[in-house]
Each structure stands twice: as C-alpha cells, then as structure tokens.
Amino acid sequence: MSSRSTIRDRYSFANIDEVLPLPDLIAIQRESFDWFLEQGLADTFRDISPIKDFTETLQLELEFDP
After folding, report:
1. pTM greater than the 0.85 cutoff
2. For residue 60, what is the DSSP state?
3. Domain enclosing residue 31, as ranges
C-alpha cells in the first residue's frame, strides 16, 4: 500500500467584509398577496369563465371585482 499525501488549498469564507442588508420578507409577502387579490384571482376567473355543462344548456360565469 502506498500512502499519498496531497496538499490541498483551503479557502475560508468565514470573514465576510460586506454584510448585505436583510430584505423585508413581510413586505414581500404582503405585496405578493395584494397582487394575488387584485390581479391573480381576476385573471384566473377570466381564464376559466364561462363554465358550460356538457349539453351546453347551463353556463356559469365567474367575475371577480375587488
């Protein structure tokens, strides 16, 4: 058996000079939810409306007005 010793370079990322600011995660979540209520639901209802039965005698129209 031969034993090889190889020297590997080690890099340390422990010392970070520039600290990045923390994002406001609550604000991001609120903006996303506001978009969902104002635009997302209306777009989805517009995409699937009207819903017709297989005989096309009944029709359900969906509309969302926030």
Report:
1. no
2. E
3. 25-60
